[in-house]
Amino acid sequence: MLKKSTYLLILAVLAAGFVLVLQKSSLYDEGISAVASRRILQGEWPYKKFWLIYTPFQFFLHAGFLKISDSLMMLRLLDFLVKVLCVYTAVRIIRAERPGIPSYQQNLLAAGLLAVIFSSGIALYPIFLAVLLALAAYYFYRKERLWLCALLAVLSVFTKFEVGLFLVASLAITDLLRIPRKEISRKHTISLLGKQLFVGIVAVLLLGWLCGFRNLYECLIDFPVNVYPAHRRLPLPHIDKFTSYVPLAILAIALALIYTAILSFDRRKKNDPLIVFMALFAGLMTYKFVVRSSYANVVMIIFLLCLFVVAIAKNAGWLKWIVASPVILLFFFSLYKLNFFVNRTLPDLRKYGYTEVCMNEPAENEIISFIRQHHNSSFYFGVKNHDRVAYNPVMFYFFVDRVMTYYQELHPGQVTTVDVQQQIVQELQMGKVEYVLLLNTEFNEPNQSSIDTHVELLDQYIREHYKEIQSFGPDYTLMQLK
After folding, report:
1. Which of 65, 83, 110, 449 has the fewest CB within 10 Å, making it most exposed?
2. Which residues pair with 479 in a beta bridge?
3. Does residue 352 form part of some domain?
4. 132 and 240 in one domain?
């Protein structure tokens, strides 16, 4: 009876996740993923034909599924599947390394992890696929299938660069800590790293040959390292009921690392790779909210911390309860977020049915309808002031036949420069782009994105060559070529 109840709980959480397939789109973050996938489907190589700040594996994968159905719904369903597979892989790891856990407890773990990952409030974010690949890499590492582990680790790097690097570092340190206890030899660690390095070099050479090494350097190294943090870094938020996850996550990770260090120094006990790996991987992932402490970044840290707590659950002593306490609070915060997003989505679901209309605000649906009615026309989606920008509505490019500019996603420190604005102006001229849609909202963050660079080449060109013809709500202005 208890086991059947846990299956019903899993189905209930899956149903909540299926509702969230229709949650509101993030026109920028989700738009980057959707539009990149569609441009690849159309035969354009990332970095070479269009700007992209992420590593590309997820977008090539999504492009393959867009061949089945060229719709945002297809990508949302794929995102749902990735999240479910992430939980499935995590439970498989626990089942393999903690075989004494009863099946009903494994089901409870699955339901809890599903609740955490569905609480993210965002779809198509590469971190979900990157963590799935990382967990699969660890699973095959423990099975001693090192070539498959290396392939999955490199794919994780090529899905979300820093997450993949955290995985590689966590695996290496986990392996090194097994050497003093004579569980493995140094040759094992050298073999592990050598295989990862070989696969990684082959992947970089192939991608560089297809997309251009200079383009890769600019998009994946120079801009993310030298420009993005300086313009996008956010201070840690003030503590309130909406941001309490940040100090809790920091405390939970600190306690997990301390607990793991205490266990590692006890030479009388056999090293536990699961505990070490989960603590290290979650610990390194804290870099994500050092730069931007959004819940979408932190949610996978909570996911890994839940696995860590399960890994130490059978250990003796009272210290594990201290370590588990902040993680339990983070889990309840995830339930709160899940409830919030489900309740926000249900009214639209009742009103419009299970359709893509639910994913956007009314004004945004009007814009999408206009784009589809003028599918033979060309569009540019920018902002009111290109010299001070936080983001642009990238998602609308998903619905056009062809994107006319190299820069689809606009960043401070990128479109706010003279060179980039000159290039966009040239592309608008050469392509005779008919419509320009501008986001009017002045969205300011406490970082350099709020600083006006006074580079107005693009704004001046739009004012001189386009006329306003329509507004979509207070946030969007549509202009047509004169």
Report:
1. 65
2. 436, 468
3. no
4. yes
- What does residue 224 show for φ and ψ, rounded to 5 degrees? -65, -30
pLDDT of residue 424: 94
Q: Is residue 354 part of a domain?
A: no
What band does 28 get if pLDDT is binned at 50, 70 and 90? Answer: confident
CB 53 within 8 A of CB 224: yes
Q: How is 129-181 classified by DSSP, letter by letter?
A: HHHHHHHHHHHHHHTT-HHHHHHHHHHHHTTSHHHHHHHHHHHHHHHHTTTTT
Contacts of 310 (CB under 8 A, 6+ apart): 94, 98, 101, 109
User: Do 140 and 132 form a contact (C-beta atoms < 8 A)?
Assistant: no
Which band of pLDDT confidence, cut at 50, 70 and 90, is reported for residue 269?
low
Residue 195: strand, helix, or coil: helix
Domain with 420, as residue range(s), is: 362-481
Q: Which amino acid does the sequence have at 384?
A: K
Q: Give the pLDDT of residue 115.
A: 96
What are the DSSP calls for 376-401, one per residue? TS-EEEEES-TTS-S---GGGGGGSS
Residue pair 408/35 in contact (Cβ under 8 Å)? The answer is: yes
Q: Give the separation between CA 120 and CA 29, rounded to whole angstroms.
A: 13
Q: Which of 314, 345, 376 is the last residue of a domain?
A: 345
Residue 351 lies in a domain: no
Question: Contact at 8 Å (CB) between 64 and 162?
Answer: no
Angle between helices 245-265 and 319-352 (to 10 degrees): 140
> Is residue 463 located within the same domain as residue 410?
yes
Sign of CA dihedral 240, 246, 252, 257: negative
User: Does 386 lie in the same domain as 279?
Assistant: no
> In terms of domains, do 229 and 142 share one?
yes
Q: How many domains are there within the chain? A: 2
> Residues 90, 94, 98, CA angle at the centre, nearest 5°?
175
The reply to whether 108 and 246 lie within a common domain is yes
Helix (H) or strand (E) holding 323: helix 319-352
Domain boundary pick from 345, 379, 411: 345
Give residue 308's pLDDT band: very low, low, confident or very high (50, 70, 90): very high
Q: Both 135 and 216 in a single domain? A: yes
- On whether both 215 and 108 belong to a single domain, the answer is yes
Q: Three-class SS of residue 27?
A: coil
Pairing outcome for strands 466-472 and 476-481: antiparallel
pTM here?
0.94
Whether residue 447 has pLDDT greater than 70: no
**Which residue's entry shows tokens 């409870």?**
108
